[in-house]
Design a protein that fits this description.
The structure is a single chain. With 195 residues, the protein is an alpha+beta fold. It has one domain: Cyclic phosphodiesterase (Cyclic Phosphodiesterase, Chain: A), CATH 3.90.1140.10. It has a 5-stranded antiparallel sheet with strand order 2-6-5-4-7, with helices on one face. It has a 4-stranded antiparallel sheet with strand order 3-1-8-9, covered by helices on one side. A hairpin with a 2-residue loop joins strand 8 and strand 9.
Length: 195
């Protein structure tokens, strides 16, 4: 349970309306498999770069300063979602996701954010960065076999998103699911092309 003076925070990349719409179409195709899952609403779709957990106001302010400075050193980069998968794996799906290519720009950004969060006082993340967007959370075993088959068989055209900023978000756990609120947004530096 979150302490009254802390917020449950995470660092994220929000997605464009067109990218969310394309991912929502993929969700609809997965729905046909009929599993018992809680689908993420399209407006909530995002990429979690670093989950922070309970965050005090002082820690949040320090992190915002670091994020603001770091974002100015980052050029906009592409996220290209190209595959479906699940945690812990497709045969035992608990979290369904759309994964992005681990390009150099994407992985470098993940490394930068991890280094920044450590310098702001967070313990090292034990899992390696995997750029993905959570589409659903499986609630029961009913229909799991159909879901596994769908995850392995559904293909889709790559979904492109141009990442132009990084955001600090808070998550409130409500009875109907999580509610996300953007606390601050930090635009990437847009390098000017030569005339």
């Amino acid at each position: 349970m979150t302490h009254p003076h802390t917020l449950r925070c995470f660092v994220a990349l929000t997605l464009s309306e067109s990218a969310r719409a394309s991912l929502a179409d993929i969700q609809q195709r997965l729905r046909d498999a009929g599993p018992r899952v809680a689908w993420e609403s399209p407006e909530k779709l995002h990429v979690t770069v670093r989950f922070l957990g309970p965050t005090t106001e002082d820690a949040r302010r320090k992190l915002e300063e670091l994020l603001s400075a770091e974002a100015k050193t980052v050029s906009p980069f592409d996220l290209v979602f190209h595959e479906l998968g699940a945690f812990p794996d497709a045969n035992r799906p608990r979290v369904i996701w759309a994964g992005a290519f681990p390009t150099e720009a994407v992985m470098n950004f993940g490394t930068k954010m991890e280094t920044l969060c450590r310098s702001a006082g967070w313990a090292p993340e034990t899992r390696s960065f995997h750029a993905h967007c959570t589409l659903a959370r499986v609630k029961g075993l009913h229909g799991a076999l159909n879901l596994t088959e769908a995850l392995k068989s559904i293909t889709f055209d790559p979904v492109l998103h141009r990442a132009n900023d990084v955001v600090l978000m808070k998550s409130d756990l409500l009875q109907g699911g999580s509610q996300y609120t953007t606390l601050a947004s930090f635009p990437f530096h847009r390098f000017r092309s030569s005339p």
